[in-house]
Amino acid sequence: MAVGAVSGMLGKIVGWSPALAALGGAMLGGAGIFAVVALRKIVDPPDDEEELPLAELESGDPKIADIAAFLRKHLGAKITAYLSDAASANDVDRWASGEVEPGPLHGGRLLPAYEATRLIVNAFGGKTARAWFFGMNQRLDDEAPAYVLRHGDRPEDWRFIIPAAREFVESAH
After folding, report:
1. Which domain covers residue 78, as residue numbers?
2. How far apart are CA 71 and CA 107, in angstroms?
3. What is the pTM for the complete model shown?
4. pLDDT tens digits, residue range 26-72?
5. Are 161 and 116 in contact (CB under 8 A)?
6. What Rg value do the Cα atoms of the chain yield, rounded?
């Protein structure tokens, strides 16, 4: 069942039909293999993205544009769009540039995503952070953090994202 859920979620992001996503999950026989194949298509952000003012991010309250830019850099625009429930990666680009601000629900999802990403990126790097967001997590009732963020409608729904990321980082050290 978990393979089907992961296959369906990743297939939707990549643009596959539900049948193709289900077939991919069934044929590969495991979420891990499927995740590696499917995530490679969507998670590697382009190398030509600009560097971010990390000093601003680390000192005090970062602006939502800086948070969106940080997530875009380390997770990629498509994953950031997915976990925030944005209509497209173009929305993330517009948030990161400061052209527009995300709505309260989208912005609310970006904050725990940013904190979790920052913890994992500082410990392991962006590839691990991208994979972590799509892995099943016991702390989140065996749901993927990206799924919990996207489908939660209140901060209470996201309250375990940061502790789950912290636990992940601490368990590996």
Report:
1. 54-172
2. 12
3. 0.68
4. 444 444 433 433 444 444 444 333 334 443 445 456 899 999 999 99
5. yes
6. 15
